Amino acid sequence: MNDLPWPLKALVLTVFVVLYYKYAKSALFALCRRAAHLLPFGRRWDASERGSVLELAAAGASHVLVVAVLVLVTGIDLTRFASGFDRPGLIALGAAIGVGEVALGSLLCRVLIEGVQAAGRRRAGSVAGGVRNGVRSGARGEVRGARTAPATAGGAVDGAVESGERMRQWLGLSRGGWIRHHLKTMEVVSLPLALALTATQVGSEEVVFRGLVLSWLREAGPVLAIGISCLLFTVMQVFLMSSWRAAMFPVVGAIVMGVTHSVLFWHYPVLIPLVVAHVTFFLFAVA
Q1: Which residues 6+ apart lie within 8 Å of 38 measured at CB?
Q2: Across residues 275-287, what is the average pLDDT?
Q3: Which of 9, 45, 102, 263 could form a disulfide bond with 49, CB atoms 3.0-4.6 angstroms apart?
Q4: pTM
């Protein structure tokens, strides 16, 4: 399939991403949840915890299978991107990149959430003001404008507390969906095992969206190849999330990480620091 023009390659990758990340993983996770009620894991884990561990393990194993299938489809030799294990500087660089990405992603999410909340307050205030003005206008024209009570220090404090509570509720939503099995797994299994399962999944994502997608679409040029890779990586985050609010942090994080990693890989095709950055990002995000 290497002889295909790049638009057809992009179409093949898009179909593959949708089929696997939306439908196949959904069916796989449903199977894991059913298995959690049947397999004898012992009494120290409840069904939700067993299901989460099974989901993460199944996600990692299926990602490895996806990498193998895409290698066969694209014909790309991944060994040329696998150097760097023996270079501590690259690993440290990857960790630093991951910390910077999670900081930037958190800041952008905070700005977006505050903007959405401010817009909602303005709409609510506009509707309430219209109702008050309408009531007063009907009272024999005696009152033509709405009076606003002066703000008090107590009201400002209450507003800040309410805003902070809404922020925590919103961020709490982002810890649902597919992120839940990472959180639960880190709570119930040993740290080395949780790291191994997480690294297998997110490392495979780096191989797919950077090592394979960018390499297969290289003939399209940097703008289109990076754009398609980032778009597929970002859209994938939305699948299996309960709402757009829940998907906000994964999507923002995917945009930050996708652009950064794609640009780096385009110029320096080495996967190890990108895998480390992705794992670091994930650990800070779910901690």
Answers
A1: none
A2: 86
A3: 45
A4: 0.81
Q: What is the pLDDT of residues 157-179, one digit of tens each?
A: 455 445 555 555 555 555 555 67
Q: Which two tokens stand for residue 64?
A: 């490895």
AA letter at 5: P
Q: What does the alpha-carbon distance between residue 88 and residue 131 come to, in Å, rounded to a whole number?
A: 65
Side-chain-side CA neighbours of 41 within 13 Å: the count stands at 18
Cα first-last separation, the chain: 42
Residues 259, 97: Cα–Cα separation, whole Å: 12
pLDDT in tens, 55-81: 889 999 999 999 999 999 999 999 999
- The residue-averaged pLDDT of 99-110 equals 92
Asked if residue 220 lies in contact with residue 8, where contact means CB atoms within 8 angstroms, the answer is no
> What is the pLDDT at residue 143?
45
**Both tokens assigned to 42:** 């012992």
List, as one string, the DSSP characters of 108-175.
Answer: HHHHHHHHHHHHHHHHHHHHHHHHHHHHHHTTTT---S---PPP-HHHHHHHHHHHHHHHHHHHHHTT
How crowded is residue 267: how many other Cβ atoms within 10 Å of its Cβ?
Answer: 8
In whole angstroms, what is the distance from residue 251 CA to residue 5 CA? Answer: 29
Q: What's the full length of the chain, in residues? A: 287
